[in-house]
Amino acid sequence: MRFFSDLNHFMMLGARAHAKWELQMSNNILRSRPRKIILCLLLIPIILGGIAIAGDPAGSLPDVLGGKKAYSPAFYTPAIFIVSILVGIAAGLITGCIGAGGGFIIAPALMSVGVKGILAVGTDLFHIFAKAIMGSILHKKLGNICVPLAITFLIGAIGGATAGGLLNRYLYELNPVLSDAFITTIYVFMLGFLGFYALADYIKTKRGLDSQETQGPVEVEGEAIPPMGKKIQAINIPPMVKFDEGITPGGRKVSWVFLVLSGALVGMAAGVMGVGGGFLTFPIFVYGLGVSSMTTVGTDIFQIIFTAGYASLTQYAIYGFIFYTLAMGMLLGSLFGIQIGSLVTKVVPGITIRGFYAMAVLSGFVNRAFALPEKLRSMEMINWSPTTTYVLEQIGIYAFFIVIGIFCFWVFKAFFTNISVLKGEVPAS
């Protein structure tokens, strides 16, 4: 039990590190006039293209998004663009307000409105990459990165992302429903794992039994090495990669084999799920390899940029599995959502935010779990009636969007109610 508790705790730390990075990228874009101009130029062809075909009576969108011909167009209707902005806003609000990556809701949200799983994954990856490119490739706070550690890790990450992309494309060509079922199953386990831990943590904190944010072997960042990390570092398979010289006298060493394997796992998760993979980097590095938290943050941000860029371009974009209208809409929405969300944290109790995070993640879990029976029935793996699986799927969709909608309404209400406090006109009570 202690292992799973530590693992989930480190996954939360990874999600929070990714959220801080997203906020930094958003600030870089919105506070730079040249970058805002570039953003507007990128949006012009999408908007014009959508207007040009808005009156198309063919109604081929369901075939493009939901059938086996799900090779994406560069643009589509203004309605789809607006929906993508709303999805981006919701993800941005979660990221900024909760301080944990909101990307977990993007793929479930897109799949719930009919977008094939592989298209949702590729689009989400490209959205992350576009934000990283516009926000600047290497942020000034990457000073904690250990270059040999990062490069060795990226060797595995590139290989893992390639394998993830190949697997997704193979399953999709074999059977689009099988592809959706596979991606849905991955999300069920991941969101369930994170969601129930977050809920338990919220209940525990609410009862006053856990007043500290940290637990386990990370009480002193960068100093204590967890037991598993000590065992891994004791295995001498040359060449050994040295790191944390500025934190521990003489530094620490780990075999390149474990770094490559770790990178492969993170890259595989990014390639299959369409996320940055940072939620896995933290538990693997800190708990498994004994890397300090400071070095882990730098390496995490570094790998997100290159892993998302490589996977989105080479595994999805060139095969037509990126819906650029959705990607740019989500980018635009998340830029503003994350700003509002980060401001709300100044006027809302942290315990409330943690409760909303647990509910948001669990709503994504319910959404994907209730969608799975219909996909299994379509592949004739279960004998449930079409009515039963349809009703379950609709319950999951409505529950998901209702919870996310309530969260967004609550954040905007908190923002506008306390706008005078946020402006500094009235001192906070």
How would you sum up this structure, described in words?
The chain has 429 residues and is mostly helical. The chain has one domain (2-423). The chain has 16 helices and two strands. A hairpin with an 8-residue loop joins β1 and β2 (252-255). α7 crosses α10 (256-273) and α14 (350-378) packs antiparallel against α15 (386-417). The longest helix is centred in the C-terminal third of the chain and has 32 residues, at 386-417. The model is unreliable at 57-68, 70-75 and 209-223 (pLDDT under 50).
What key attributes describe this structure?
globular, single chain, mainly alpha, 429 residues, 16 helices
| Average pLDDT rating | 76
Spatial order of the strands forming the largest sheet: 1-2
Low-confidence stretches: 57-68, 70-75, 209-223
Please describe the biggest sheet, giving its number of strands, its sense, and whether it closes into a barrel: 2 strands, antiparallel
Strand content: under 5%
Query: Over all CA atoms, what is the radius of gyration?
Result: 21 Å
Return the string of H and E elements: HHHHHHHHHEEHHHHHHH
